[in-house]
Amino acid sequence: MAIQLKHALNSFFEKNDVKEKVENSNIFIVWNDVVGENIAKVTEIDKFKNNILFIKTKNPAWRSELSFKKETFKKKIFQKLPKMKIKDIRFI
After folding, report:
1. End-to-end CA separation in angstroms for the chain
2. What is the Cα–Cα distance from 52 to 29, expressed in whole angstroms?
3. Which domains are delineated in the chain?
């Protein structure tokens, strides 16, 4: 009985990408470390969808400034969360 339940749960988690979603949610924990205290104050993670990380910024000037640093941020995220697949970071 326990083996059947375990198999059913594993199947459910695989079909619904639960493991990947949990791993990707770790970005909320490491964001401040990735960008530093000053940038963390003016940014907020909006969502992670289709391997794109959407970041709200305080104003258009910050959007412009941070867009030049997104490759650096992607590398730092990968160092902290190697299983996370980020195709792009968009500042909104």
Report:
1. 49
2. 17
3. 17-91 (3.30.300)
